[in-house]
Amino acid sequence: MKKAGILNRHLAGALAELGHGDGVLVCDAGMPIPAGPRVVDLAFRAGVPSFAEVLDGLLAELVVEGATAAAEVRTANPPATTLLEARLPPLELVPHEKLKSLSAGARLIVRTGEARPYANVLLRCGVFF
Questions:
Q1: Which of 98, 111, 112, 120 has the lowest CB atom count within 10 Å?
Q2: Strands (E), the chain
Q3: What is the predicted pLDDT for the residue at 129?
Q4: Catalytic residue list
């Protein structure tokens, strides 16, 4: 058994399969999940695990070259905006409806237990070299 890093076997396996340019949607419990992408649902109860905890865990495992979030996050969830701007490359902000349509093209969706609005981000994988 792994003693460090991501222990969830479904998430660890999905991350190992990602390549350059693949999309990973990290979303709150209320984000509609499109049919198609692989989904790892980590939600246990409202707020557990938090969006911040999951994002930090993923960022320890991934190289991210770009990120897209809903423009509505700025006014509806300022703490999420601060978190995203502090941890990610410059955000591309799009209307929430467009983020939902872009999420259908993600290779992986990781659902958190976050219960605050617009705690969603689409990450674009980079390479480590």
A1: 98
A2: 23-27, 38-41, 64-70, 91-94, 108-111, 121-125
A3: 84
A4: 20
Tell me the two tokens of residue 20.
């350059």
Query: Which H/E stretch holds residue 74?
Result: helix 73-76
CA-closest candidate to residue 123, choices 6, 4, 18, 17: 18
The answer to whether 107 touches 11, Cβ cutoff 8 Å, is: no
The rounded distance, in Å, linking the Cα atoms of 80 and 82 is 5
Instruction: Indicate the DSSP class of residue 38.
Output: E
Q: Tally the residues of the chain.
A: 129
Residue type at 20 in one-letter notation: H
Collapsing DSSP to helix, strand or coil, 94 comes out as strand
The per-residue pLDDT for range 105-124, each reduced to its tens digit, is: 999 999 999 999 999 999 99
Task: Report the pLDDT averaged over residues 38-58.
Answer: 97
Strand partners for 1: none
Print burial letters for 69-80: b (CB count within 10 Å at least 16), e (below 16). bbbbbbeebeeb
What is the average pLDDT across 66-84?
98
